[in-house]
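INTERNAL AUDIT FORM
Audit reference: QA-55
Scope: verify that the stored structure record matches its stored sequence.
Auditor: D.O.
Record contents follow.
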Amino acid sequence: MTRPNFDKKHPRDDSDDAEETSTHQPSKKTQRTLDDFVTTDRSSRSPSPERNDAASKEISQEDIFRSLRLRRIVRENHGADINQCAFFVRPATDHEEEIDASNILATVGGAQANIYDNEHCGDHLDIMSHFVVDGQGYGPVVGEASEPPTQVLLTCCWLSMPNDAVLAAGGSDNDIHVLSIARSMELQKLVGHTGDVVDLQAHPTDRNLLLSLSKDRTVRIWHVGAGRCLAVYETKATAACLHPYGTTFATACADGSVHDWEIPEDMLHLSTSEANDMAEERVTEGIKIAAASKLHAGSTIDCMRFVGTNVLSKSVNGKILLWNPETTQIIHTFNIKGGGNNHCRFDIR
């Protein structure tokens, strides 16, 4: 297996028509650290509550949408779908060493993960770092019998580590790649799934914990610092979401049923040595909180997220429901234009 490749080369298409959508060329500089990109003056970006309240009275929603404009189009050179886009969101913790890197944007598509700076380059998206699964490169070289990359990254999420922004990415190679943006290197490769990794979520209160959902009919909880799996939940899940308190998570199945699963308290906030000493736990039964016919009429749920104490779930028939997980009462229904066979994911911030 070749070494994972963090290439500083811009991942945009080099063809002639790329000029139609991309005119910005990255300046030739010496290698920059994460501090060159992250925002340090939070006060300049976050208006006071008094100013915010006053502005909300003067600016209507229509005014906001009218002011939106297309800032930038970037064509990535892998020639495949961009499967997920994730902004770094600083967690609500009291750790002073955690940086504000909310200007950083990551995308995954093909065999690539690309990280952009979305704030400090005017209307441009400046490439910060670039990762290719197993260092397979950009594709076949003219005149050589090389094959294009076959692995596909399907999902990613950000992890907040001391003085670093860390991206976890997974896909068709069944592994989870933990990537340091500050050091431009792969910190860990979490191995254990035997099917495509289709969803990754960072734990809301423990920055070392990571939830992964795979087509191998399991959900796993990982300790990133120790690089090992702490628990395997056997479920044919198509979607999962962590509760904001981090003590449970919910899964949805292809038939539309929803189950709740507990994360043991002794699994939270472990040191690396404590995580290494803990035996892997296997869980086979969760608590059913919604029957298949109750919410989405048996349609497959492909995305689910908590909104406070309520749940927002989406099924492939184009219906999004906001509902109470304790009573399964539907609070609001949204219909996606275009009807059925709609596969996509969303996030809540």
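Auditor finding: record pair retrieved intact. The two ends are 38 Å apart (CA to CA).
Action required: none
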